[in-house]
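Before relying on records like the one below, remember that each one covers exactly one chain. Contacts with other chains, cofactors or solvent are not represented anywhere in the record.
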Amino acid sequence: MRLTAHSDYALRVLMYLALAPGRKATVREIADSFHISQNHLAKVAQRLVRTGMVTSSVGRSGGLQLVAEPHEITLGAIVRAAEDDLAIVECLGHTRYCRLAGVCGARGVFADALDAFMATLDAQTLETALRNRDGVRGALALNALPRDPD
């Protein structure tokens, strides 16, 4: 199973915002930091706003801001917010069509595997991805951002 770029970019946006709590960041700023497409990142940011993980404001001091603390946001919630379809096989998808439906034993195995995958992600938070905050800051050249009050 491979997640789409939406999950990857959503995690990156949330990590970036978590590095400077209370500070707003623009899509351009985040895209430039990661060297990724601003247009693609804007779509991901819109989805994060719709799901309530971040807020967005316009204007001179506008930007994106994290709504919850990093330890309150599970990696599973991020993936669910970013992905349209987590089906690892067609019979688990939206259409659930398969000529073998009802006679194939693999559907249950794949459903269990997906449940285990999501349970693992639900057991970890955004804070997990930020365990090495100084390393993440350095990799993104963000050492000038205000640090968390620890």
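The beta strands are 54-57, 63-66.
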